[in-house]
Amino acid sequence: MQSSLLHPESFHPVFKTSISAPGHENCTLNLHYGLPPMIFIDPYELSNRADTYSFKYAGPSNLELPVFALGGGGEDDKNAQLLVTMAQPLSAEGVLEVEVPLHARYGHTRASTVASSENSFQLTQIPWPDAFLACPASTTKAKSQLLPSMRPDFAAAFDNSFIVPLSPPPGAVPVETIRTPVGDGAHVRSVEVGTAVTVLVAFFYLVRAVRRTMVRLGTPSVALHAKKQ
């Protein structure tokens, strides 16, 4: 098992995991992701991958909120869990690649006194997924105790399966880092003023456009005037 991030310096990275587990062609591959508050997935986007895998997701439902606007509960309530189950069993070769698109939230603005360009970015660590195979159980008591820690409603799907965990290669550091830009606190006021001015200008432009349209529709056309004559 080997994982990596595609586009790690963007707000839309992709978590790619490569699996090699020959000899388990009757088993189904599963990946369990633990996502920190800075990271979320779009369930509608993953639904488009139904031919490749199904998924279960539990986490904050306000997808586009910045991380500092996530309300309610403690830090654990702001974390998310994602369980991905491949649609097809492994082939005899047992080689498979899984890609899960992720999205990063907007972070806290940095202090205006910080001049270093490195502090213009926020680093977020994401652990590799827990990968495991769910194989047909030969007996009713064959449930493995090696099932990764996950929500009870996620784990219930494997009550009658024998679990084969898949480990990272020796020496691997099972964590990836996303580097996303953050705003400068000194610019907040000017951004707010600029946004307000833009909204007002757009409002008055629309009012003017509506009035001109009403005047035009209320004036008889030349063709209609000629017809009446």
Automatic annotation (TrEMBL):
The chain crosses the membrane at residues 186-207. It is a single-pass membrane protein; Single-pass type III membrane protein. It comes from the Eukaryota. It is found in: Endoplasmic reticulum membrane. GO terms for biological process: GPI anchor biosynthetic process. Keywords: Endoplasmic reticulum, Glycoprotein, GPI-anchor biosynthesis, Membrane, Transferase, Transmembrane, Transmembrane helix. Pathway: Glycolipid biosynthesis; glycosylphosphatidylinositol-anchor biosynthesis. Required for proper folding and/or the stability of a subset of proteins in the endoplasmic reticulum. Component of glycosylphosphatidylinositol-mannosyltransferase 1 which transfers the first of the 4 mannoses in the GPI-anchor precursors during GPI-anchor biosynthesis. Probably acts by stabilizing the mannosyltransferase GPI14. This is Protein PBN1. It comes from Mycena sanguinolenta.
